[in-house]
Amino acid sequence: MSRSDEPVVLVVDDEPNQLVTISRILTRQGLRVLTADNGAQALELLGHENVDVMITDLNMPVMDGMALLREVAGLPAKPATIVLTGYGTVQSAVDAMKHGAADYLIKPCNPDELKLVIERQLEVRALRREVSDLRREVRRHQRYGALVGNSAPMRAVYDVIESVSRNKSTVLLTGASGTGKELVARTLHARSPWSAEPFVAVNCGAVSETLLDSQLFGHRRGAFTDAVGDQAGLFEAANRGTLFLDEVSEIPLGLQVKFLRAVQEREVLPVGATVPKKVDVRIVAATNKDLREETSAGRFREDLFYRLNVVTLRLPSLAERPEDIEPLAEHFIEEMAESYGVGPKTLTTGARTRLLAYPWPGNARELQNVIERAFALSDASEISLADVEPALDPAASGSGPDAASSAPRLRTLEESERELIAAALDEAGGNKNEAARTLGIDRQRLYRKIDKYGLK
Predict the structure, then answer these.
(1) Range of 99's domain?
(2) What is the DSSP string of 328-389?
(3) Do 229 and 367 belong to one domain?
């Protein structure tokens, strides 16, 4: 979309004289004015112009003002809309405001009133941009490289990264799935003196033992049937850089002896070779299992565990750092907006409240999936409670004997229900019918809940 320095106003009216009159008034005010004689033409202009304010008549051919309002409501970057109406159709203007119009004017327009309404809407948009810029700046300070969050648990993670980034100590990352272990490994690499060297990642649980052997250490021509030439392994590919081994607990027991030598001596023996090769790599291993338990059960070598357990960094679950939920959600919204090629969405109060109340058993990865789903299924400029609720695991929102230990923010069922109903009412502007539809319950049941929880 194009963007000029002066504010842009789009005037939509099927009366040529009205278009000319309003255009002259606004042009003298220093505004850039675009015109359209019906809703369809206006939508076409909105597709490639960044419009700040749209003034539209209601009664027009091809596409009337109400239809235009409904279409504009789904745009990622929608303008503030002012409706033009005659004396006899003020109710239509009120209805239009219920569908997203910001204000209305009665024909014929008073020039001073028109200027005042336009100025007011431009001031509101400027204030929203300022707030958005401030939020973006705050989020920037809540980041450490690609990592997002300024909670105490995350600051502790940053401190460890800062301490070990300047040396090549082996680092073992632990924590639940979805806590961002590979992102931490990449951040550690990016802040090291050898950040320009390769970063190589491999999932040790995704391939068979034979293939993992060849993948990690390489092979020589003729070592097996398909070995038509020499092939360097991932240890060699990561030489002078970082090798990230995800799900390291899944390395087959028979391969762990060979792997131990690679970690201990920093040398690898390709399949079919007789002479080992030296490598210079930092090893970052990750697991969501307790390696001590795996060692006790005989599934993981004790000597390999101690070789990997030089610097251990446990990544906190999202439930342990609830103050990071909102910055993470905003971060994922920015990422998805760029990926989908649309303007950033905003979280409604109801959606924000629900995200903060949810225990996030799937951690940051689950939050990312919820935001991506909202982008995939809706073109609206807001992410509402109805957009996020279906993606959340109902079982995770319940209560049970283990809930407190696994999810510190988990509330009782009644507390969660009260908060959810309050958020739905807030999002619906107090409209109980709309709140009931959002919650998927009948109106009488909603009234009973409102009385039960003392909600006004």
Answers:
(1) 8-139
(2) HHHHHHHHHHHHHTSPPPEE-HHHHHHHHHS--TTHHHHHHHHHHHHHHH--SSEE-HHHHG
(3) no
Q: If you ran DSSP here, which 8-state letter would residue 14 be given? A: S
Model pLDDT, residue 401 = 36
Q: Per-block average pLDDT, block size 10, for the chain (456 residues)?
A: 70 90 89 91 88 89 86 80 74 74 82 88 80 56 76 93 92 94 94 93 86 85 68 90 94 91 89 86 95 94 94 95 93 89 86 93 94 87 90 68 39 66 81 80 79 77
352 in any annotated domain: yes
User: Is 250 in the same domain as 290?
Assistant: yes
Residues 312 and 323 occupy one common structural domain: no
Could you give the C-alpha distances from 87 to 12, 109, 409, 421, in angstroms and in order?
A: 19, 11, 55, 40
Instruction: Specify the pLDDT at position 248.
Output: 95
Write the CATH number for 30: 3.40.50.2300
Q: Which of 111, 139, 167 is the last residue of a domain?
A: 139
How far is the C-alpha of 246 from the C-alpha of 244, rounded, in Å? 6
Determine the angle formed by the axes of helices 432-439 and 413-427, rounding to 10 degrees: 130
Say whether 62 sits in a helix, a strand or coil: coil
Cα first-last separation, the chain: 43
Is residue 25 within 8 A of residue 18, CB to CB? The reply is no
Cα(48)–Cα(42) distance, integer angstroms: 11
The pTM assigned to this predicted structure is: 0.59
Cis omega (within 30 of 0) on the bond before 108?
Answer: yes
